[in-house]
Specification:
This protein is mainly alpha-helical. It has one domain. The chain is built from eight helices and no strands. Helix 1 packs across helix 7. The radius of gyration is 17 Å and the shape is globular. The relative contact order is 0.23. It comes from Marinitoga aeolica. InterPro entries: LeuE-type. Keywords: Cell membrane, Membrane, Transmembrane, Transmembrane helix. This is LysE family translocator.
Length: 198
């Protein structure tokens, strides 16, 4: 597995704004960090299982139709380039309604993963392009799912802890941040495509 591409993609997915991060920041602002911990743990568990289910699905697909790896690789490549483009063009003054809050509960954190397009697309892409092609065991898939769940915890926790600082930083250096994140995604997209055809 290309660990640099894998970790770059994971870092970009975890650090950039999305429903989990925005809701963590909003819940923390509203209820305090301590009362937001159940939500963060729910994100961790929900996301870990989402990655596991996506990995099992991709593993079965790869075994039934080995050629599907090329299709998933091309879709992953296109998706990464699309994300890079959207990120490059995005603004922190997005139309996302940050005010729409749910409670900071564990249950909300878990359920959120299965209605969160960013988490679903990440899970399918990361398992189909990195984990399943590199490891042929369910045990490693479980280990990687736990690892990504923990990474998700730290990402959402960082937004909850430093929401206001991050928000100020991103609005001050928004363009530079977006360019760097977009370049990381382009690098990851190229790595995915090259691994598919080798």
């Amino acid at each position: 597995m290309d660990w640099l591409a894998f970790l770059s993609f994971t870092f970009v997915a975890v650090i950039t704004p999305g429903p989990n991060n925005i809701l963590s920041m909003a819940n923390s602002n509203k209820f305090g960090y301590k009362k937001t911990i159940p939500f963060l743990l729910g994100v961790t568990v929900g996301f870990g299982f989402l990655v596991l289910f996506s990995g099992l699905f991709n593993k079965v697909l790869f075994e039934i139709m080995p050629k599907i790896r090329v299709v998933i690789g091309i879709i992953g490549f296109i998706y990464m380039l699309y994300l890079a483009y959207v990120l490059l063009k995005s603004s922190n003054h997005s139309n996302e309604k940050e005010e729409v809050l749910s409670s900071a509960s564990f249950k909300t954190g878990v359920i959120m993963q299965y209605i969160n397009p960013k988490a679903i697309l990440f899970s399918i892409t990361v398992t189909g392009n990195f984990i399943v092609p590199a490891y042929d065991s369910v045990f490693m898939l479980v280990i990687m799912s736990i690892f990504l769940g923990v990474v998700a915890y730290f990402g959402t926790s960082a937004w909850a802890l430093m929401g206001s600082i991050l928000k100020m930083f991103l609005s001050k250096y928004e363009k530079v941040f977006n360019v760097i994140m977009s370049l990381l995604l382009v690098y990851t997209a190229i790595s995915i495509l090259s691994s598919v055809f080798h």
